[in-house]
Amino acid sequence: MTTTSHALDVERIRADFPILSTVLHAAPKRPGVQLAYLDNAATTQRPQQVIQAIVDTYEKHYANVHRGIHWLSDQSTDLYEDARGKVQSLIGAPTREEVIFTHGTTESINLVARSWGDANLKPTDEILLTEMEHHSNIVPWQQAAARTGAIVRFLPITDDGQLALGALDQFLTPRTRIVAVAAIPNVLGTINPLSEIIVRAHQAGALVLVDAAQSVPHQHTDVQALGADFLVFSGHKMLGPSGVGVLFGRRELLEAMPPFLGGGSMIRRVTTALFEPAELPAKFEAGTPPIVSAIGLGAAIDYLQQLGMDAIQAHERLLCTRAHEVLSSVGGLKFLGPTPERKSGIVSFTLDRVHAHDVAQLLDRQGIAVRAGHHCAMPLHKRLGINASTRASFYFYNTLDEVERLGTALDEIKRIFRRK
Ligand code: PMP
Fold first, then answer.
1. Cα-to-centroid distance, 213 and ligand 1 (Å)
2. pLDDT (tens digit, 9 = 90+) per residue, 47-93?
3. What is the rounded CA–CA span in Å between residue 391 and residue 399?
4. Residue where one domain finishes, among candidates 306, 331, 352
5. 331 and 300 in a common domain
6. Hey, which of 19, 100, 179, 207 would disulfide with 284, CB 3.0 to 4.6 Å?
């Protein structure tokens, strides 16, 4: 069965992704199995257009950026800055200078926790996180709390994996300085009601950092409509190369923050006694930035925008809904998180009496790539009373056929374990 949803011709799209035609586990008398890549929340694959943009840059345009008084450096700088403009337009940032290239979501959050956090947090101030966060949106805040004496609190979740918004008023206190929350958490896939959270946090006088690692790649994003103070994401989860990420921050906040890393490019002037930081965005881009990765991310954004974020989201919803239908007939399978209409293309589950790692290994024998473990969300797993889970996560190039294969393979795994 092929999948052609209203707007996306998935068969044609798949032809752009060389890796998706991989056949694995072939042996002399066995033909091998077709890869079903269902680990997109960990990282996505790249289309030929992104790979070609990287090759072209190295072949024709590569030099260091912002340094050059030579032609090639100007070329490279133009491409790097074009990529910044593409990010700006993708997320609706008011100006390019509010788009900072980092090495990923993790670094972006560390930047804010270190730079904004150290300058603004005082003992007994509160940092509000949620029980569904990735470690990247927990540990930097715990570190900031340890440095400043601030306190980290966690908004609870409901049993079906949604934020307990009823408790928000109790957790937003006059001491709350920042709320750091995932737009879509990486295990539950819940589409969190960000606008409401942001409005209520602002009413309480707190800033909001949105961890958009799992949302920017999958749905339309508008930082101005949202009213986000900071928003962060990674290139590698949206067809781009690894090693590049983004921090969006409101200009007045970024201007008031001290630099995170010191070094070349982030200064206006250095003497033996002191330095003066550069203007935005250079102030937060110390050293040689991820030049080619950022340019590759620009090509990835072109690709996504050509498909349309709404069409991407609609296709993923189709896959997620079908996955819930197919997987609910697998005996002993329990979904984590809400029902499909409340989440993105992430389907995490446990299988009664089968460890998540065994599930993932047996699926791999069928060519199906999923993730198993705690997915960098140990507090979430503890809250749910489990040690590990298995996660299938879709992107727009996945097909209904792959969903059926997942269901059939899980049925088979369940049968194997029942016999044991
Ligand atoms: N937050 C969320 C919600 C994520 O899914 C991830 C990646 N799994 C991260 C943060 C960290 O992203 P990165 O490893 O690219 O820095």
1. 6
2. 999 999 999 999 999 999 987 789 999 999 999 999 999 999 999 99
3. 17
4. 306
5. no
6. 100
